[in-house]
Write a structure and sequence with these properties.
By secondary structure, the protein is of the alpha+beta class. It has a single domain, classed as L,D-transpeptidase catalytic domain-like (Beta Barrel), CATH 2.40.440. The chain is built from three helices and ten strands. The strands form two sheets. The protein has a six-stranded mixed β-sheet with strand order 1-4-3-2-10-5. Strands 6-7-8-9 form a four-stranded mixed β-sheet. Helix 1 runs antiparallel to helix 2.
Length: 181
């Protein structure tokens, strides 16, 4: 956890604290590196917090003590995992399904711009997007959905439904979402 705090301090120029809901995403090379570094630290924190480095598709772990402080999400595209922090403490990890080839999930540092408990896609046949949290102006969002554990979406970050509901409850507009390799 101290490693994450150090990384966050070193990358504070990339707006890792919650930002206004109108903030734009940061998709610079530096932001992508910071997000990838955060994902590497999150992998280590998962072992330290939950004692495991594996997680099956459609599964998640959530700490019994939810901690305090602003929520932040770190997404690892390579691992197909999402990590949730409150303050500097990892409180949850989940398997995910991100964008398939040609429909890539963007990388960088984003903010939750919109939240809706039930949303339907305007792009993809009115597809349901429960516990939707939009992170960019093009419709990319965190939401509950099919979670095979490999990239299979149109760019969104699909989460197991129970995890998506819990995540929806701890984030706010402006919560930081870091997406790295």
């Amino acid at each position: 956890m101290k490693t994450l705090a150090l990384a966050l301090a070193l990358t504070s120029a990339f707006a890792l604290s919650p930002t206004p809901a109108t903030a734009e995403s940061i998709e610079t090379p530096e932001a992508r590196v910071a997000a990838t570094d955060a994902a590497e630290i999150a992998r280590q924190d998962m072992v330290a917090t939950f004692g495991t480095h594996s997680l099956k598709a459609g599964k998640y772990l959530w700490a019994k003590d939810p901690a305090s402080g602003p929520a932040r999400v770190v997404v690892s595209l390579n691992d197909q995992r999402a990590y949730v922090y409150r303050g500097d403490r990892l409180i949850a990890v989940s398997s995910i399904s991100t964008g398939k080839p040609g429909k890539d999930t963007p990388t960088g540092i984003f903010s939750v711009l919109q939240k809706k408990p039930m949303h339907r896609s305007r792009k993809y046949d009115d597809a349901p997007m429960p516990f939707m949290q939009r992170i960019d102006q093009y419709g990319i969002a965190l939401h509950a959905g099919h979670n095979p554990g490999f990239p299979a979406s149109h760019g969104c970050i699909r989460l197991p439904a129970p995890f998506a509901a819990k995540l929806y409850g701890v984030t706010t507009l402006g919560s930081t979402v870091m997406i790295g390799a």
